[in-house]
Structure formats: structure tokens, C-alpha cells
Write a structure and sequence with these properties.
By secondary structure, this protein is α/β, with parallel strands linked by helices. The protein contains 8 helices and 7 strands. The protein has 2 domains: 195 residues, LmbE-like (Rossmann fold); 27 residues. The structure holds zinc ion.
Amino acid sequence: MLFENENEKMLIVAPHPDDESIGAGGLLTLYGPKCDVLLLTTGQHGHHGGLSEPEVTKIRKKEISAAINLAKVNKLFTLEIEDTRLYQNKKTVYSFDVKNYKYIFVPNRFERNLDHMAVYPILRRMIMLQKSKATLVEYEVWTPLRKPNLFIDITAVIDNKRRMISEHKSQIVDCDFANAGIGLSAYRGMFANCEYAEAFFVCKSPLKDFFKLNESSVLLFARNRKRMLKKKNK
Ligand SMILES: [Zn+2]
């Protein structure tokens, strides 16, 4: 059974403060003590309310700490990469040790936000580089998964998920993320025969799975590879 072994540590990778609560607040509440959260960027380009970037960074760090404390998460790690510049700073991410984690949760590969899109390929490569045995699991933030293969019943902890999202006060001024996030959980609940659920995609083998699911990406990859080989041979 997934996640039942006490010693199997889980890492939830959040590109910005709030992604962890919107995408996996229920999961974090259910398994908090065996979870670490890795916050990649400062989120300084999020909603600022007229504050300076350093002030926004400070506030958002406090907000994510308060949110994950509600789930009794084991530890928060922060890499302080500039918001929107994750892919350009992937080497900073590579330096984080993922060898001790059994499951690594990332925003799904279909997310539209630039930083969100960058996480899956970076972590996929890290797992290979570090020869980690971790299983990648994709979660939903701004773009729902096309074909989730895991639903977790979060009905019992839905109030805590709402509280976690609401801790990101600086970001919910214009948009009620709590309601939106809980709405997606209610929608997912329909497919899991419960009131509220979170949906995930468990990748058995990241590379194999990547090729299987994205035929257009495979074609694109093949074309780029051909182009690269041509250039190399010139
Ligand atoms: Zn985000």
C-alpha cells in the first residue's frame, strides 16, 4: 500500500509558497510528519500589494511556514531561487540531495506556469543523476492532470487543507484560492467515491512514462535530437 511504511520519507516540491497547500494540502495533513517540503523560489513576483520584493519574500516564507506547521510537516527546505527563473537556476536544485526520499511530489508536467513546468524535468534528471530510487508523483495546482492514476480521500482533513491555503494571506487578496482549491478537491472526490480527494499521477519509471504519455513530446524530442546530431556532425 502506498505511503503506509513509516520509514518511507516523502518530499513535496513547491515552486512557490502556496503550491504545496493548493496541490497537496490534504496529503500533507494526512502524512505530515514523514514529509519534507522543498520550496524552490522566493515567490517575490507573486501578488505584492505595493510591497518591495524583499518584503514579499519575507512574508511568503512566513506564510508557507505557518501553512505546513498546520500539517505537522517534518522540515521545510528553501533554495531561494528568483521567482520565474527556476529553469535558468536548475543547477541550484541539482545540489539538493533527494536520495533519502521514497516519493517525490512535483507539479504535473502539463502545468502552464513557467516555474511549475520546469520542476518535473529537473527532478526527473536529478533522480537519475543521484541514482535515487524515488518514485515521482505529479500533483495538480493550476492545470488539472489529464489521466490521474491515484486519488487520495482527503474528506477527513478538508478543513485543514482550507486553513493551509488561507495561511497564504498575501496571495488570496484578489483571488479566493481556498475556494478554488477546495472546488477541485470536490470535483476529484466524484472519481474516488468520497466527498473530497486529491488526484495524482504516480510515474512508475519517469523516463519510460514520459515517452509513453507525451507522443507529441516524443516527436519533438526526436526532431530536436536529429537537429542536435546534425549540428554536432557539421
Ligand atoms: Zn506556483
